[in-house]
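Priority: medium. Attachment 1 of 2:
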């Protein structure tokens, strides 16, 4: 697939690092440092474009920007963006990471959907970038769980496949409004990692008794 990533930081480059070797064609955009953007893209086997070019190029647009500059990034889309799936990776973090700026009577994902009427938004917050950039995405032999929310089941399936391609385990969490609860779960991980002393080699796992739910 053609994957256009807005935000070429820890997460954007970390996703590219997994997606390019799995055969995806990746374009990176949105950096204040064009030299670094070009160098990172070349090292990853990705191309570079403006935000508008990235959206036109992509089958799936990945939003991987700090929350406080996300509206700015989306304002660079041009007049009539084409219809696209938008994989929202953002955490609506305060700049000092002390909490969330949005929730739980709405979600970052729903606010993004309001800003992007051209997009089918799917929320799926990836594992910590330290894991994406580390030699293995597995901890104790297990993949990190990623909740996938969105109102279009086909779009959820597309993003779930990409989550699988980054060596994480997708969980279909249903409609976009469920992001009101998955986003705070990611905030909990941020707290545990950086305030609670656990560090970023942590993630979520969902335990389910499939035999009991089938009965
Ligand atoms: N880091 C994680 O472990 C993690 C995990 C899950 C989700 N997330 C979420 O994913 C999103 C991206 O996180 P990240 O860690 O990849 O962020 P990051 O490393 O800070 O990357 C931000 C990207 O946005 C670009 N940017 C352009 N203008 C900017 C500005 N005015 N201020 C800051 N950045 C600007 C940066 O470019 P230049 O710096 O090159 O200019 C960079 O390419 C955030 O919403 C975060 O909460 C992060």
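Attachment 2 of 2:
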């Amino acid at each position: 697939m053609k994957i256009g990533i807005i935000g070429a930081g820890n997460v954007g480059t970390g996703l590219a690092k997994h997606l390019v070797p799995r055969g995806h064609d990746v374009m990176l955009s949105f950096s204040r440092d064009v030299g670094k953007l070009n160098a990172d893209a070349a090292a990853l086997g990705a191309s570079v474009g403006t935000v508008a070019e990235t959206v036109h190029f992509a089958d799936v647009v990945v939003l991987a920007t700090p929350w406080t500059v996300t509206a700015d990034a989306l304002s660079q889309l041009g007049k009539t963006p084409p219809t696209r799936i938008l994989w929202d990776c953002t955490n609506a973090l305060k700049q000092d990471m002390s909490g969330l700026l949005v929730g739980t009577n709405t979600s970052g994902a729903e606010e993004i959907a309001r800003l992007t009427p051209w997009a089918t938004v799917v929320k799926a917050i990836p594992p910590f970038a330290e894991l994406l950039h580390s030699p293995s995405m597995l901890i104790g032999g297990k993949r990190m769980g990623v909740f996938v929310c969105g109102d279009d089941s086909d779009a959820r399936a597309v993003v779930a496949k990409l989550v699988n391609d980054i060596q994480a385990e997708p969980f279909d969490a249903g409609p976009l409004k469920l992001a009101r609860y998955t986003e705070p779960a990611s905030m909990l991980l941020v707290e545990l990692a950086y305030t609670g002393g656990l560090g970023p080699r942590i993630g979520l796992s969902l335990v389910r008794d499939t035999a009991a739910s089938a009965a």
